[in-house]
Amino acid sequence: MSGTAPWWRDAVIYQVYIRSFADGNGDGVGDIAGIRSRLPYLKSLGVDAIWINPWYKSPMADHGYDVADYRAIDPLFGTVAEAEELIAEAHRHGIRVIPDIVPNHTSDQHAWFQAALAAGPGSPERERYVFRPGRGPDGGEPPNDWVSCFGGPAWTRLPDGDWYLHLFAPEQPDLNWEHPEVRAEFESILRFWFSRGVDGFRIDVAHGLVKHPGLPDLPPRQQPAQQGPLATADPSQEGPQQHTDHPHWDRDEVHEIYRAWRKVADEFPGDRCFVAEAWADTPERLAAYVRRDGLHTAFNFDFLMSSWSAKDLRAVIDDSLGMLGAVGAPATWVLSNHDVMRHTSRYGRTTVKRWAVNEPYRPEGPVDLELGTRRARAAALLMLALPGGAYIYQGEELGLPEVEDLPEAVLQDPIWERSGHTDRGRDGCRVPIPWSGRTPPYGFSPEDASAAPWLPQPADWAEHTVEAQTRDETSMLELYRGAVRLRREHPALGDGTLTWLDAAEGVLAFRRDPGFVCVVNLSATAYRLPDHTSILLASGTAQGGLLAPDEAVWLSV
Ligand code: GLC
């Protein structure tokens, strides 16, 4: 792409789930020192930026998504000085740094919430959150029927009788974004980190900040369905995607907040950027977040939620490019993150239909990891060939599967408790990364570590380590390295447009100019490759001009 377009239009951004990436101090939990020690690895992978999950001071009720102080780093991860050193060092490697900001809620240990508890009902301190009296004769019923994304009611009652809202865990009280102090505080936090050199922010639950002022009950059809990755199934929600007015998700008024944030980003030199975690129910609704005066980019979860079907994927690609292109925003593509089942394990299952935003992302039933891995390799080539930016979740480049047999005693995700032990939660995609060696901790922690990794790593991960895969040209890691390198070098890749080519049913084939074609075979039979001058990269063998099922190639034409 041209040298003048902003970097974020086609960046490859690597997601660092800090607890599980690399442990520098040997306490079994990943940290900033660990990230710094692995910058050469990230450089070798060729990524443009890293997004780091929350690193702020936190009691860790939701592993950092419960922030007690947005201007401090949790001692588990390091210090603000170390964060500044990481940012500078990453920049020297040509890697940008994007922390996560959590504006929908704070921790219950945040100074504001503590002040609200102390000040009592009706106090101005309570107005920065969403406190309400209860319903029923003695106020013993919650103010409305909203449900927590982690299970159970979204309200908790205090001994003084008041109820407070938490769309997630009770340790994560929702802020009141109608309050001017809340708005001013977050703009100040953004400036705090922008002036320390961060290149942007990933915005957590970006679609949740504004609530309907009357806090009405959920519309009957949506109960008890929830929106987002943590939802419970509701078969009544099947069918074409439609937008329905919801009292706390994706309300129009939220965009005003982001117009103000955009102005803050624009105060700083360089191209700072935002990426929204916004679960919108149509591509049009998602595009509203990335209009010219709003945020820069948003995760495209429709791609992640799509089944392994050429028809479904093509529809998602066309809708995303169409809707986002109409507002001048680049598309983003994402296959996995810290909230969903790893895609080798998803694709290894026979889920035929597209997931909806209100379905659980942890499909059950037997898994065929060989199949899932073959598809994951093809999906990587598809994702990295599409116009726009792409996200790689740590470990996907190693082909890690979901760890589905973690013993119950080690599960830590609040979903496990809140669901009454019916949903194992997200720990299975958060197991610490295997770097080297034949046995746990596989180089995740230093040799003299005082503690084991915070989640146990499988005994059979020796073949998944970075060490084992490096220079093995058949490995997932070298496939990613090759694809990211080619994507950087090839003038057709990155930002731009695509043209679909005629292909058999179940085959996706598209051209990007100049001279590039990507073919993905999602059908059950081998497919003859179109005319080409050479094969640039193949997820499988692509022998004899035939592309086997569940394989992809990049062609020079
Ligand atoms: C987002 C995060 C998830 C977190 C939740 C509450 O969905 O990605 O990990 O639990 O928000 O902050």
TrEMBL record:
Domain annotation Glycosyl hydrolase family 13 catalytic: ranges: 15-430
**Which superkingdom heads the taxonomic lineage of this protein's source?**
Bacteria
EC number(s) from the headed UniProt entry: 3.2.1.10
Enzyme class, top EC level, equals: hydrolase
Q: Its Gene Ontology molecular function terms?
A: oligo-1,6-glucosidase activity
Keyword field contains Ribonucleoprotein: no
Alphabetized Gene3D superfamilies for the sequence: Glycosidases, Oligo-1,6-glucosidase, Domain 2
Q: Where is this region: Disordered?
A: 213-249
The keyword Metal-binding is assigned to this record? no
Provide this UniProt record's keywords sorted from A to Z: Glycosidase, Hydrolase
Family membership: Belongs to the glycosyl hydrolase 13 family.
Protein name according to UniProt: Oligo-1,6-glucosidase
Taxonomic path: Bacteria, Bacillati, Actinomycetota, Actinomycetes, Kitasatosporales
Give the gene that encodes this protein.
malL1
